[in-house]
Design brief:
Rossmann fold, Dehydroquinate synthase-like, alpha domain, 2 domains, two-stranded antiparallel ribbon
Length: 385
Amino acid sequence: MYNFQYYNPTKIFFGKDQIKELDNILPKGKRIMIVYGGGSIKTNGVLSQVEEALKGNEVFFFSGIEPNPHYETCIKCVEELKNNGIDFVLAVGGGSVIDATKFIVAAFYYENKNYWEILETNGKYIKKAMPFGTVLTLPATGSEMNSGSVITKKETLEKRAFHSQLCFPQFSILDPQVTFSLPDKQITNGIVDTFVHVIEQYLTYNVDNQIGDRFSESILSTLIYCGERVFLDKTNYDIRANLMWAATLGLNGLIACGSPEDWATHMIGHELTAFYNLDHGVTLSIVLIGVMNIMKEEKKDKILQMGERVFNIYEGTIQERIEKTIYATESFFKQINSPTRLCEVGLDEKAIEPIVKRMLDRNWSLGENGTINYEKVRLILEDRL
């Protein structure tokens, strides 16, 4: 197991009717900006619960955060914070709203007015951020309990990430009941996103991190169990609760402790989203299978372990077991109605070249071993035609 440092200051309020805890969490007299997306929190009752709990504070609103949050929209929110003398930001939504909020609170104090530098330098020069908390409405990204954010620049079709210990939420409220009204597509995307988050920290090479591996395998098994049942009973609280907590644990830093990480699937997937405006989860279910196929020799030990511990695959030659594990992963994605090929989302071989060119221009070497160059990216995407 590798050396590691672990830090996570976010306080979690988990369970039924926890939104009312805002009344106790935040002192009265604050000027609070609620940041949210397209308005579903108005129709599902979440916003009214938040407003009730925030009585005694002066509340402002900023809406319109996109599913892949735009840099340009975030900058507008920064100006709104400054114009209204905001003390605290409350992100009410899914991972995109929370990611946007992290960028907004960092940009608020950023000395260099070229805010895109935050993304270009992975948050290296962030010295201060406005305090914020979250009310999670869509389990997927784990952003409610980590310090990372991914932002899209619409003007240049770029999607970049940053991290900063100053961008952990002070608190996050997770009430599984608020997910009952989510469309099936969003639940599917959330399951896939969580599944691939875990894979990025697990399906690398063995460093005898037994606790990290077992944590990862338990999350994967939970996702498969709940994914097979969540659409059969859409108000089953226990299923939704397990999915919500799995999503948080999938990317709060815990399972990464002591292990190598990959993130190639996400980096390639980000480019598919940036160029073709695909849902983040959709890009991941497509790209992961390509990564597993093309990189199976480097990943074979962990693929075999995953096959045994997650899918109960013990019979056959090494190569047969590897193929069965990849097939089982793809079959799970299909079972929850997430695409696994580019043709399923209307893309063909012409869609590959812009992504390969960007990888070449940036001279990126992806994967846990740094061996996924632009040529490997081409093979991974060609595998998914």
